[in-house]
Amino acid sequence: SSLAHNARELDRLATGLRAMGLSVPDSVCNFVLAGFPDAQTADAALAFLKGRGVTVRGLAGYAMPDRLR
């Protein structure tokens, strides 16, 4: 089912991001929240991923400039 697929892939993504040294709290949603060392690093990651067709959201508007969703 798509629910099982999403849960499995969410865990896989969170594990991979943590292995890269990013802060990723456990999620009960359909997205992960990745914490970067600072806002500039998050902005660079956002631009890099968007340039490759990966949909991510910056969270500066929510007072979390060092996080991506």
Q: Specify the biggest β-sheet.
A: 3 strands, antiparallel
Strand residue content:
5-15%
Please state the average pLDDT score: 94
Q: Strand tally, please?
A: 3
Which keywords apply here?
69 residues, alpha+beta, three-stranded antiparallel beta sheet, 13% strand, globular
Summarize this, please?
This protein has helices at 2-19, 39-51, and strands at 34-35, 58-59, 64-68.
Walkthrough of the structure:
The longest helix is centred in the N-terminal third of the chain and has 18 residues, at 2-19. The chain starts with a helix and ends with a strand. By secondary structure, the protein is α+β, with helices and mostly antiparallel strands. Strands 1-3-2 form a 3-stranded antiparallel sheet. The chain has 2 helices and 3 strands.
Secondary structure blueprint with pairings:
Blueprint: H1 2-19, E1 34-35, H2 39-51, E2 58-59, E3 64-68
Antiparallel strand pairs: 1-3, 2-3
